[in-house]
Amino acid sequence: MQEKRVSRETSGAAKAANAAASTAEGSSILESLTASSPLAAELADENRRRKKLTTTELTRPGHTRAITVSNQKGGVGKTTSTVNLSAALADQGFNVLVIDIDPQGNASTALGVEHSADTDSVYDVLIEDFALADVVTDCPDIPRLQVVPATIHLAGAEIELVSLVAREQRLARALAEYHRYREENGLQRLDFVFIDCPPSLGLLTVNAFVAAQEVLIPIQCEYYALEGLSQLLNNIGMIQKHLNPPLKVSTILLTMYDGRTNLASQVAGEVREHFPDSVLKSVIPRSVRISEAPSYQQTVITYDRSSTGALAYLEAAAELVQRS
Ligand SMILES: Nc1ncnc2c1ncn2[C@@H]1O[C@H](COP(=O)(O)OP(=O)(O)OP(=O)(O)O)[C@@H](O)[C@H]1O
Ligand SMILES: [Mg+2]
């Protein structure tokens, strides 16, 4: 909402500020503009952030970083963060794999990959012992980004997994085998694997925790944000203890931040106080462009790269790389 309002009201000021920023004498014009208009100040700030991004050097991690994106609370931005961080990292030259392990298949939709019922998918990997290599597909719009899609069959997998051998480790084993497959076939090592979880803590999410070394928790800057978090952290603790000792909550990402409300800044402050070392400095704003992108089977990076939403995810991705 805010973005639409901003672009409608200010195209004149925006052009002036952008033009000012790009000329030699621009800085003084910009200073006088920013002093008189909060909007020009916002644009100047965005310009500065974009410039900083282009001069930030990002180096490949020394090993594949497998990151599970989880929060059992629904609608907090798990899928949105998975697809946009992945797109931002692939855009920056990293090799990225997204594993959609949510029966809703939202990540598969946003990345524009086929996931109708008869598509080979993560279900076949978990239940039918398919190799990941047999179900991985390229994201059509973004080079270096690959996807393991989820189909509706996954809805029954929670129950089907119960009776299978090594039911908690099936994704981890498939992923380890896929890394070997890539090496043997001369494919470049993956830099990042993101696993998009459903809003529950069942066996699908357990498989995702066992297959990763890191957990990224998106937290929506709304009331009730921290509710349920202790249960999530307890579950992660149990996985560390019994199934995957290296697992750690490496990253917390604040999402859907609405700078116009006191509540958003209060929630953000509280989360930073609780988790001082894990919360990214970059905050994802509530943005119309971010919410529109999936209906075009796009990420915000490809849908509208110049939007504040795309900028925020590019910044968050850069921060994620630097924190390795
Ligand atoms: N920064 C944002 N600004 C505006 N809308 C957003 C933003 N992030 C996410 N949304 C919208 O909020 C809704 C929920 O986001 P998303 O699907 O990413 O959450 P989720 O945690 O994956 O949900 P689920 O628990 O159902 O898997 C979607 O409609 C999405 O487009
Ligand atoms: Mg989701």
UniProtKB/TrEMBL annotation:
Database matches in SUPFAM superfamilies: P-loop containing nucleoside triphosphate hydrolases
Report residue spans for region: Disordered: 1-27, 41-64
For the AAA domain, which residue ranges apply? 65-249
> Which Gene3D superfamilies does this UniProt record tie to the protein?
P-loop containing nucleotide triphosphate hydrolases (3.40.50.300)
Q: Where is the composition biased (Low complexity)?
A: 9-27
Briefly, what is this protein's role? May play a role in septum formation.
Its family? Belongs to the ParA family.
From the Swiss-Prot or TrEMBL record, give the protein name.
Answer: Chromosome partitioning protein
